[in-house]
Amino acid sequence: MPPAILVVDDEPSIRRTLREIFEYEGFKVEEAVDGEDALARLRAARYDVVMLDVNMPKRNGLEVLAAARDEMPETPVVMLSGHGAIETAVRATKLGAYDFIEKPPDLNRLLVSVRNAMDRGVLATANRRMKETIAASEGEITPILGDSPAMRAVRDAIERVAPSEARVLITGEPGTGKELVARWVRHLSPRRDGPMVEVNCAAIPDELIESELFGHEKGAFTGAAKQRIGKFEQADGGTLFLDEIGDMSLSAQAKVLRALQENTIQRVGGDRTIPVDVRVVCATNKDLAACIEEETFREDLYYRLNVIPIHLAPLRERPEDIPAIAARFCKDLARRNGRPDRRFAAAALKHLARQEWRGNVRELQNVVERLIVLTSGDEIQAEDIDRYAFPRTLPRDPLAELIDGTQAWGDFRDAAERVFLERKLAEYDWNVSRTAEAVGMQRSHLYNKMNKYGIEREEGA
């Protein structure tokens, strides 16, 4: 759908000229003849930008602007005036006008102003929606539990760094809670009311990562049917969380480095420099120093990102934290699954502390939920853990199950391939890049296989 523009002017010749200009540029144009007409149209429909004359009958442009700012604050307004008084321009800017242009307008400046105003309106809408989503999902942000020295150090680091603008690099094994730390850094920062935009760099194909981060212009490449606003622009005024930063391609790393150095970005296929005000927080389960030696990660970008390092120790190195974490999960997951309040017996907690926890806190959460659903009684016992969480019985041979469950060779081959890929993805914590490397397959080929077999990570897995 073409962008919609409302032209408000009491002079028919001005409206006609602006209509011809904007329709030639691909806009859908509507006209309003005075201030009352303009407000009626603004209340009845949504416009991407408004061109508003200052001097009009019934209601002048400044009165319309003030009403529009109150009722539809995300709609950008560009003021037009045949009398370019500085006082009027200042008043219009204070009332929220995006720009103030004198008549007759310079064509190039007019078009640049309108397109920039339209971009600002898109960002304002995106930021509002993100804030609403965050507010809905963050009624109570999950606490960082554990009283081990390692977790006390993490909480202390968060409290010290959050109020600053310093970039943070969070490291740790999969499932240790790196995303939660990033959310707390933002939650305790002056940017907490701004958007938090999260990007999983490992989940985006190399050929799309730059468009995802920086956006693209219409026609920038095959399939770019319309303009796209990237994550950097969406996070303007807030926090950008780059998860699995170690899996980002070198070409994208170069552009991220430039964005951090200059606080500007360029959309793919565009030539306009766009300023951005973003705090970047990153996370990785890779050894970035080793990646630098292997020339898969830029050393200069590493030093830009690693201003404040926060490391999350694996759960097996801090077993004293398990009782508090398990108790919290027990309370929350019982409520989520509609079960009565439960608690762990002392022997059960000791039994949990003795496990290896290769999947860290995420694995512990899954085990607690399994116990909540499958057991009964007020207390979860140690034998419940043996029975439901870590059964001792050997599973049936999966190959025999596949043979018994299929008849044709093609069906068996597909079923075996699906089981193999699912298990390898789970083994590598659903990191597609690492899984593809381990099985000797291109990442794009693995994505195609996942789509073919409908392989998806289960919620909470």
Note the topology.
Layout: E1 4-8, H1 12-24, E2 28-32, H2 35-44, E3 49-53, H3 61-71, E4 77-81, H4 86-94, E5 99-102, H5 107-137, H6 149-161, E6 168-172, H7 178-187, E7 196-200, H8 206-214, H9 231-234, E8 239-243, H10 250-262, E9 264-265, E10 274-275, E11 279-284, H11 288-293, H12 299-305, E12 308-312, H13 322-336, E13 343-344, H14 346-353, H15 360-374, E14 379-380, H16 382-389, H17 398-405, H18 409-427, H19 432-439, H20 443-453
Helix pairs in contact: 2-3, 8-10, 13-15, 14-16, 15-16, 19-20
Fraction of residues in H or I helices = 40-55%
Query: Order of strands side by side in the largest beta sheet?
Result: 2-1-3-4-5
| Secondary-structure class | alpha/beta
Separate helix tally: 20
CATH class of the largest domain: Alpha Beta
User: What would you call the shape?
Assistant: elongated
Please provide a written account of the structure.
There is one protein chain. By secondary structure, this protein is an alpha/beta fold. The protein folds into four domains: 4-120, Rossmann fold (3-Layer(aba) Sandwich), CATH 3.40.50; 145-313, 3-Layer(aba) Sandwich (Rossmann fold); 322-350 and 360-386, Helicase, Ruva Protein, domain 3, CATH 1.10.8.60; 398-453, Arc Repressor Mutant, subunit A (Orthogonal Bundle), CATH 1.10.10. Helix content is 49%, strand content 13%. It contains 20 helices and 14 strands. The chain has helices spanning 12-24, 35-44, 61-71, 86-94, 107-137, 149-161, 178-187, 206-214, 231-234, 250-262, 288-293, 299-305, 322-336, 346-353, 360-374, 382-389, 398-405, 409-427, 432-439, 443-453; strands spanning 4-8, 28-32, 49-53, 77-81, 99-102, 168-172, 196-200, 239-243, 264-265, 274-275, 279-284, 308-312, 343-344, 379-380. Strands 2-1-3-4-5 form a five-stranded parallel β-sheet, with helices on both faces. The chain is elongated, with a radius of gyration of 28 Å. The protein starts with a strand and ends in an 8-residue tail after the last helix.
